[in-house]
Amino acid sequence: MFKIGKVSYLNTLPLFYKFEDPKIELIEGHPSELVSLLRSGKIQAGIVSSVEYMFHPDQYRIISNLSISSKERVCSVAIFSNKPLEEAKKVYLTPLSLTSKYLCFYILEEIYKLSPSYTENREEADALLFIGDEALSIKSQNKYPYTYDLAQEWFKVHKLPFVFALFLVRSDAPHYLDELIKNLASLSLETFYKDLEEGKIEIDGYSKEELKEYFTECLSNSLGEKELLSMEIFKRFLEKKKYA
Prior knowledge:
It is a single chain. The protein has two domains: 2-71 and 162-227, Periplasmic binding protein-like II (D-Maltodextrin-Binding Protein, domain 2, 3-Layer(aba) Sandwich); 77-158, 3-Layer(aba) Sandwich (D-Maltodextrin-Binding Protein, domain 2). It contains nine helices and eleven strands. It has helices at 13-16, 31-40, 50-55, 98-111, 132-141, 150-158, 176-197, 208-218, 225-240, and strands spanning 2-7, 24-29, 45-49, 60-70, 77-81, 90-93, 117-119, 127-131, 146-149, 163-170, 219-220. The longest helix has 22 residues, at 176-197. The relative contact order is 0.22. The mean pLDDT is 95.
């Protein structure tokens, strides 16, 4: 039995829509949790933060042509603020995702040339980074007058998608696991997008129009030349800052 990590967010639904096999047990958690489980060998593979591969490339194999990436925007990774970003002094960073945290550093420090302080205390921040379903919920409530989609900020500069998560397999796992994952994910994606087009996908809290917009205009599951180039640019930033 292989244990495979699945992020408990809406954005993983297409990849895991028909992801069923008697040899696989799905372990759900937020992105940072799954990274810890993968590093420790408590799971053999999972869809996890892309920076984990950039930090430890020798420890993993990437499942080819699969990712959770943005198009021009991602819609579920954003900074929310009551004031323009240039005026933010203290930024809340969600502890739930490694990739989003480092992308936030890039957006604020490299693009906007800001030097805010960072906190994990929401109450003391004047700008807040949220991800996943929480970000979608906050966005729909229109609570904040300023919203900065991190993938959109990246796209404005590089004209490239941003790769938030990769399907990684531990290097000590058997190689046939890679093919099993790829086949199951391909079936899931094909079936999901067919059902989405036919209006069969129903999720509490979202209209069919909202779901179609999110999955077709914001998210991508590709890992082609543009995504790989984007990863290389981001890796250079991590290396320059000595994060990687």
